Amino acid sequence: MTFKQFYLLSLFGITFSIASYLFFLWLSHSNKNKQNSFYKEINQGLLFIIFAILSWSVVAIYKIFDLKEFTLSYIINDRILSSMNNLFLFLSLAFFPIKKKNRFTLYFVKKEKWVINVFIVFSLVISFFTITDKVSDSFNFISRLLIVGLDSIFSIVCLSAIGYILYQSYKELGFGKWMLTYITIVISMFSLTQILLPLSKMLPGALSLFYPYFLAFFIICLSQFVFLIATYYSVLYFSLTNKSSLENNIIKDKNTNSQEISEVLKVEIGYNQDKKLFYLTLTFIDEFQKEYTETNENSKLLQPLLYWMLFSYAKKQNVMLTHQDMAIAKFRMVDYWNKESDFKLTQELLFFNESGHFELKINGQNITINDMIFLKSKLSVKELFKKYFICFVPSDVKTAQQLYNKKNADKYLLEHFEGFYFNISE
Length: 426
What we know:
Rhopdopsin 7-helix transmembrane proteins; about 65% helix; transmembrane helix
């Protein structure tokens, strides 16, 4: 067995075993996707990590059965496989559950947009590799240099990005400075291998003697890198499980004396000028048929309260609401009330559902929205009504104006929303 074969078998063994471990870790928590959107995002990110690590396994298998000279075709195939690894690592960045916000992490706020942009960039990179293969006869050495250099740059950028995210992730889990320093060292050394290995092939006369040592150095850095990832996800899931158990126990204790609301009689929303507080007041009947009136107050106009306002106004206008975010809106409305009250609401109690069109079950005459002029002055209120504006357009107008076409709907919104919003009243 040659040194290179031993290296490739080591590469395959390390990456495949870690990928298998992470896969079973993902599998053991995948059933929580439907219960918790937070788990869903973490699991999606872990899946990208697993594919990234498996890409190294595929590279090892490819090279074990295709030990050729350093030809251009070999370089292209090798770099494409390397790009797949970078692709999945880049995709995973948006799904690490870090709380720190800065210019870098702002790129990951819109996860779907990030995924699309990453795919576009890597499609261009792979296209570049393919085009270079077609013109290889005219500049063979330059082609090598461009391909290897471009891939090395992408690999270093990718490792630096995921290293930063890992650093912040470990920090938020409570690890101290020694562990954070260790992460910095590992990522720095791993990035260095992305310079040394290509150089040893591009400049064989000067560095070929050091190539076996560079391979050994790469294996050491890679094993530490995947170890850091495996440790992070293990600790993360463990902490989330313990936190979930603790929260369930707290909620269970808190709800020991809680009662279910059997019917909501009245809703009142407004702004208390004296206290400088936004409020939601419900009059309801509990499970023992006793009537209560209770108020939830907050100094900020939170999104759930905005949804209460939207649904209340829609009910008074006999309008049913439909939107792709409706499930989130309904959940936040109920959760907003249940967090502060011992009398618990359910979505089934609060909403009618007619083929995906929703409205409050409360009679519109029993809904009051106070201080509407003041509330309308808030930008967040205006933006929410703009988002759901199409729901308030009569069906005959929608049909006549062909508003089921997005382009037509956007144009109609631009021309008619201000008039609609101006006329909003109690």
